[in-house]
Predict the structure.
Amino acid sequence: MKRGDKRMKICGLIVGLAVVAILGSLVLLGHQQKKPLEEGSTFNEYPKFLEEFNLSVQGTPLINKPVELTCRVKQTPYVSRNISIEVILPEGFKLVSGNLSWHGYLAGNDIVEVKSIIEAIKIGNWTITAKTSPFQATNLYISVKNETAVVYKDFPGAAFYEYPAFSALGNITHKGEGEKKR
């Protein structure tokens, strides 16, 4: 047997053993029991620590029309801790005034509201997200058109991201077209 053939066999054996080791570890990881979610939990690692956590807007967020955005957080009665709140605006919106973040101590049953004035600057479907640390998140879905806008608290469906403008009635208006398609 030639020296090069021996090296090829050894390399092949090493690669084969590595593949078996990787596949074996993946199988073991897949068989680990997953912990059930505790009632009211957002994720396995984090129990629910907020009684209330939501985003809202006052007014209709039309193009170039300022509206008030509020992120309201209420601590549960049995937890007190430092938290951070961050509101993330998409590219279709801009901050006019106010704050998009807050950090501080929140005692049981305390409420904090992060308020800002925002303005839609682009037509489209946008998601405004608020996050807290420890981690929880909430979204507000906004469809901005030329002369109208629709705000959704719950995700309106896949069509929200597939088309430039999705209305609450299910009609689709494409950019540059004046008529609705059905």
User: Anything to note?
Assistant: The first helix runs from residue 3 to 30.
